[in-house]
Amino acid sequence: MRLVTLFTGQWADLDLEAVCRKASGFGYDGLELACWGNHMEINKADDAYCASRKKLLDKYRLKLFSISTHLVGQAVCDNIDIRHKSILPDYIWGDGDPEGVRQRAAREVIATGHAAKRLGINTVNGFTGSSIWQYMYSFPPASEEMINQGFADFARRWKPILDEYQKIGVKFALEVHPTEIAFDIVSAERALAALDYHPAFGFNYDPSHLGYQGVDYVEFIYRFKDRIFHVHMKDVYWKENPWSVGVFGGHVPFGDPRRYWNFRSLGRGYIQFEEIIRALNDIHYEGPLSVEWEDSAMDREAGAAESCDFVRDLDFKLSGIAFDAAFEKK
Amino acid sequence: MRLVTLFTGQWADLDLEAVCRKASGFGYDGLELACWGNHMEINKADDAYCASRKKLLDKYRLKLFSISTHLVGQAVCDNIDIRHKSILPDYIWGDGDPEGVRQRAAREVIATGHAAKRLGINTVNGFTGSSIWQYMYSFPPASEEMINQGFADFARRWKPILDEYQKIGVKFALEVHPTEIAFDIVSAERALAALDYHPAFGFNYDPSHLGYQGVDYVEFIYRFKDRIFHVHMKDVYWKENPWSVGVFGGHVPFGDPRRYWNFRSLGRGYIQFEEIIRALNDIHYEGPLSVEWEDSAMDREAGAAESCDFVRDLDFKLSGIAFDAAFEKK
Amino acid sequence: MRLVTLFTGQWADLDLEAVCRKASGFGYDGLELACWGNHMEINKADDAYCASRKKLLDKYRLKLFSISTHLVGQAVCDNIDIRHKSILPDYIWGDGDPEGVRQRAAREVIATGHAAKRLGINTVNGFTGSSIWQYMYSFPPASEEMINQGFADFARRWKPILDEYQKIGVKFALEVHPTEIAFDIVSAERALAALDYHPAFGFNYDPSHLGYQGVDYVEFIYRFKDRIFHVHMKDVYWKENPWSVGVFGGHVPFGDPRRYWNFRSLGRGYIQFEEIIRALNDIHYEGPLSVEWEDSAMDREAGAAESCDFVRDLDFKLSGIAFDAAFEKK
Amino acid sequence: MRLVTLFTGQWADLDLEAVCRKASGFGYDGLELACWGNHMEINKADDAYCASRKKLLDKYRLKLFSISTHLVGQAVCDNIDIRHKSILPDYIWGDGDPEGVRQRAAREVIATGHAAKRLGINTVNGFTGSSIWQYMYSFPPASEEMINQGFADFARRWKPILDEYQKIGVKFALEVHPTEIAFDIVSAERALAALDYHPAFGFNYDPSHLGYQGVDYVEFIYRFKDRIFHVHMKDVYWKENPWSVGVFGGHVPFGDPRRYWNFRSLGRGYIQFEEIIRALNDIHYEGPLSVEWEDSAMDREAGAAESCDFVRDLDFKLSGIAFDAAFEKK
Amino acid sequence: MRLVTLFTGQWADLDLEAVCRKASGFGYDGLELACWGNHMEINKADDAYCASRKKLLDKYRLKLFSISTHLVGQAVCDNIDIRHKSILPDYIWGDGDPEGVRQRAAREVIATGHAAKRLGINTVNGFTGSSIWQYMYSFPPASEEMINQGFADFARRWKPILDEYQKIGVKFALEVHPTEIAFDIVSAERALAALDYHPAFGFNYDPSHLGYQGVDYVEFIYRFKDRIFHVHMKDVYWKENPWSVGVFGGHVPFGDPRRYWNFRSLGRGYIQFEEIIRALNDIHYEGPLSVEWEDSAMDREAGAAESCDFVRDLDFKLSGIAFDAAFEKK
Amino acid sequence: MRLVTLFTGQWADLDLEAVCRKASGFGYDGLELACWGNHMEINKADDAYCASRKKLLDKYRLKLFSISTHLVGQAVCDNIDIRHKSILPDYIWGDGDPEGVRQRAAREVIATGHAAKRLGINTVNGFTGSSIWQYMYSFPPASEEMINQGFADFARRWKPILDEYQKIGVKFALEVHPTEIAFDIVSAERALAALDYHPAFGFNYDPSHLGYQGVDYVEFIYRFKDRIFHVHMKDVYWKENPWSVGVFGGHVPFGDPRRYWNFRSLGRGYIQFEEIIRALNDIHYEGPLSVEWEDSAMDREAGAAESCDFVRDLDFKLSGIAFDAAFEKK
Question: Which ipTM value was assigned to this complex?
Answer without folding.
Answer: 0.94
